[in-house]
Amino acid sequence: MEKQQKYLGFHVTLSEVHPWKDLIIGELGEVGFDMFEDTDNGFVAWGLEENIDQPKALKLLEAYEKKVSFTLRVEQTPVQNWNQEWEKNFDPVEIPGFLRIQAPFHESKEGFQYSIVIAPKMAFGTGHHSTTYGMCMLMQNIDFNGKRVLDMGCGTGVLGILAYKMGAHSAEGIDIDEWAVQNTEENTTLNAVDMPVKLGDVRAISGVYDVILANIQRNVLLADIPEYVKHLSDGGSLLVSGFYQDDVPAIESVCVAHHLRLVDRFTKNDWVALHFQKKN
Questions:
Q1: Average pLDDT for the chain
Q2: N or C: which end of the chain has fewer CB within 10 A?
Q3: Sign of the C-alpha dihedral computed for residues 206, 212, 213 and 216 taken in this order
Q4: Which fold has domain 124-278?
């Protein structure tokens, strides 16, 4: 009899979310977990049980015990129940009058300028996370008509898809995660959007863009913003998120040093999204 595949879930509740959540998630991603859900006081990490080095995962969590207090609950879920769980827990994300992000199993709803369908394979990039929501909030104030757009660290591709639907001449995606590339390709098909996507990091960027969307992580942004600027047209827009309010001075300092000026911002749950414009 064939062994039933299972998902393994680590439910982690932290006494201090920042900066520990991002640090722990980054390490769990190296031992086989590839899906992460945000919770109010932590996160849930998911992955196929057969792909996860569980002893190593538990050992890396033990290393954090002296740094931050946390609780861990381990869960196993049969693969065939996965979509059922998502259907029970995945609610559409709505920005009134502007945008509705929904899963394929949701019924459509009138009253929004744009509607995007995202296959529910992970929480990040569906709009549920405050950073994705913040990027979408900033995007509604930008004229994308005829613009060349890069979705850097595209994840599910939701930002690039939105830019294309808002009139962009072209939208492209780049991500370091092969799963993200595949998921973006799937989601562009679901939304009938022509958005090429490739595997790689900042070195994979080529050409010049009018808008660069980078919802990544603080340290990556600090290292890569200078390279983004090289590929940004004069007067072009750089939208960044993936960091907290306390990180804004460091992000802004790098941007100002590379001829960018802050023109808009959005904050939700202490997560910040910033819109910079390149000086002519």
A1: 90
A2: N
A3: positive
A4: Rossmann fold (3.40.50)
What pTM value is reported for the model? Answer: 0.78
Q: Which of 58, 62, 31 is nearest to 47 (CA)?
A: 31
The per-residue DSSP string of 31-75 comes to: TT--EEEEETTEEEEEEEGGG--HHHHHHHHHTTTTT--EEEEEE
Binding site: what residues are annotated? 132, 153, 175, 215
Relative orientation angle of helices 20-28 and 54-62, to the nearest 10 degrees: 160
Domain parsing of the chain, residue ranges: 6-86, 124-278
Of 46, 44, 49, 42, nearest in space to 16 by CA: 42
Q: What is the pLDDT of residues 165-222, one digit of tens each?
A: 999 999 999 998 887 898 899 999 999 999 999 999 999 999 999 999 999 888 899 9
Report how far residue 173's alpha carbon sits from residue 201's, in angstroms, rounded to the nearest whole number. Answer: 11
CATH architecture of 6-86: 2-Layer Sandwich (3.30)
Distance (Å, rounded) from C-alpha 157 to C-alpha 172? 9
The answer to whether the beta carbons of residues 114 and 165 sit under 8 Å apart is yes
Distance (Å) of CA 274 to CA 82, 135, 215: 35, 8, 10
In the DSSP assignment, the letter for residue 110 is: S
Distance CA 272, CA 251 (A): 11
